Amino acid sequence: MPAPEVDWIRWDDLPPILNSAAILDKAFKRAAKAHGRGRTRAERAKSGSVARVHSLGDTISSTLERYVKAFPSIGRLPPFYRDLMHILVNVETVRHDLGTVDWCRKKVLEFSKAYSREIGRSSDAGLVEVRRKEAYGRISSLVHQVAESLERLEAARKRLSSVPLIDLEAPTVVVAGMANVGKSQFVAAVSTAKPKVAQYPFTTKEISLGHTERGHLRIQVIDTPGLLDRPAERRNPIEQQAASALKNLAKLVVFLYDPTETCGFTMPEQIHLFERLREEFPDVRFVEVENKVDLKNSGSGRMKVSALTGKGVDKVLDHMAALLTNRAPGASPPQRAD
Ligand SMILES: Nc1nc2c(ncn2[C@@H]2O[C@H](COP(=O)(O)OP(=O)(O)OP(=O)(O)O)[C@@H](O)[C@H]2O)c(=O)[nH]1
Ligand SMILES: [Mg+2]
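Predict the joint structure of the above. Result:
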């Protein structure tokens, strides 16, 4: 597989996409400032009209071009971002809308050039004004024609911008488990992330990111939405994000259990999910950790923490760092990402 081209991804600086009325408003305001030159009033009026139609076309086409260019092109995305794009937006619709907007950009340029040429050739002052108005009208109607595409693209942009910019090369730990077991609390305890923690299930709706340092090692820690124990094809889009993080980002997965079962799921259910994930992602290394040890110590052989009080967190972090640098006793060599 060719090396993914990651340096151009700019999920977080996709420009907000204005609606058609706002684009026109901006373009008309700028066009109104364009002035003509000439010796006579008629000459100045004519070249002023040419300049305004030109300016209108330029502002609109450069605005639309910026939108089309800034949108990530799915074919060049690394697998995680490609998955996320499929999960979060309708890729076919986005493609279609980008095509429509680009069509509009070309048409606007075409019209503004044709009209400014025609106005420039005209010697009739009345006709100059008629043509300028006509150009304004036709260009406006082109932009209004793509109003729905612009709105859908803005909605897609908003959804895509919520995906954090992840360092695809950094040592990465993904925290997974059933809903409400304390994944977000754990990620908050071990890293710089400040995810929302709440006592109801399915609080986390998207992937979030934090960092932690262990000696010289800077570990990326990823919080994921809770998974239910069901086949991959029945996962909802929120769960699909968690699965994609396991598949594409994790060098190591911390699978968190809640042995108190206050999360709402029994231990056999949680173990079943663990077995399912291990089967689905055979190349990923898992560490099983029991959370909420402040409430209950199951006496099992798994590592134990309290994400709430911080008990045991250091030990788990040391273990994570050791596995990531392959220093753990009996650790197998790190898996290659490819
Ligand atoms: N007593 C105790 N409560 C905890 C601990 N860790 C988390 N909790 C509580 O468990 C509840 C769920 O915590 P979250 O971190 O939101 O759980 P989650 O796994 O991220 O949940 P989803 O995002 O819904 O999947 C919250 O009320 C937390 O305060 C712990 O170590 N001890
Ligand atoms: Mg959560």
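The mean pLDDT is 91.
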